[in-house]
Amino acid sequence: MVIKNVDINYLDYGKKDAKAIILLHGWGQNIQMMQGIGNHFNDTNRIIILDLPGFGKSKEPDKVWTIDDYADALKELLDKLNVKKPIIIGHSFGGKIGLLYATKYEVDKLICLASPYKKIITKETFKTKTLKFAKKIPVLNKLEGFAKKHIGSTDYKKASEMMRKIMVEHVNYDISDKLKKIKCPTLLIWGTLDQAVNINDAYELEKIIPNCGLVTYEGCSHYAYLERFDQTIRVLKSFIGDGRK
Question: Which residues in 108-132 are b (16+ Cβ under 10 Å) and which e?
Fold first, then answer.
């Protein structure tokens, strides 16, 4: 589907008449990194997973997009798919888009998996250090190879000039002052050893968002939701409920 002059690749499956869950992947990743979660809810919910513009099979924006542009593009896509007041689950970059979306549009519930919201100090912190750490996580190698294959598949060095500019826009965009506008119930899931978005940011974010709870995974990284995947699914099922609109 073409949104804001960008052809966006997405999956739309599950129980079409139920509450929609929207899954947003992290920087340099694609649909497959979130499909494992989606597949656990397709009996009770409508599942929509997209390759964010510039990643996977979606085309790159033809100009430098801000996080607002990503959020607005998501709204336009959901409007065309007749989705109202969705549940949004986002990891990292996708979570930041979800956070900003929830400040502007109606959201039923929001789940952020290690989502940055303040200025990221260095590109090294966000991309290289995290990817080096991720390679040491044994569980990622067990997920049929897809996690290892897709984590960091489009890092800064491999990115096009346009995506590099978008990444710079992303890491420098602080949305802290907007987050008090979020009205929906919000859940944060974070690893205590996250080297990309520090656990202290999670504690701070929990205080900023009015109706917010935090689940921490001791000893886990930026990919905590994958490292304790079964626990993540149990937590999400408890928070999301039965899929009714």
Answer: bbbbbbbbbbbebeebebbbeebbe
**CA dihedral sign, ordered 53, 50, 168, 131:** negative
DSSP state of 41: T
**Distance of CA 193 to CAs 140, 150, 157, 218, Å?**
16, 21, 25, 7
Q: How many CB atoms lie under 10 A from the CB of residue 183?
A: 14
- Tokens representing 99 are 């956070």
In whole angstroms, give the CA distance from residue 164 to residue 103: 26
Nearest Cα to 49, choosing from 70, 78, 27? 78
> Which residues fall within 8 angstroms of residue 114, CB to CB, at 6 or more apart?
91, 92, 95, 189, 190, 191, 194, 196, 197, 202, 222, 223, 224, 225
Residues of the chain below pLDDT 50: 123-130, 144, 146, 148, 153-154, 156
**In this structure, are strands 20-24 and 10-14 parallel, antiparallel, or unpaired?**
unpaired
**Whole-model pTM above 0.90?**
no
Give the closest residue to 130 by CA, choosing from 98, 92, 76, 159.
92
pLDDT recorded at residue 179: 97
CA dist., res. 33 & res. 19, Å (int): 21
Provide the H-helix boundaries in 52-136. 67-80, 93-104, 123, 129-134
What number does CATH give the domain 2-240?
A: 3.40.50.1820
Q: What is the pLDDT of residue 243?
A: 63
User: What pLDDT does 120 receive?
Assistant: 73
Give the per-residue pLDDT at 138: 52
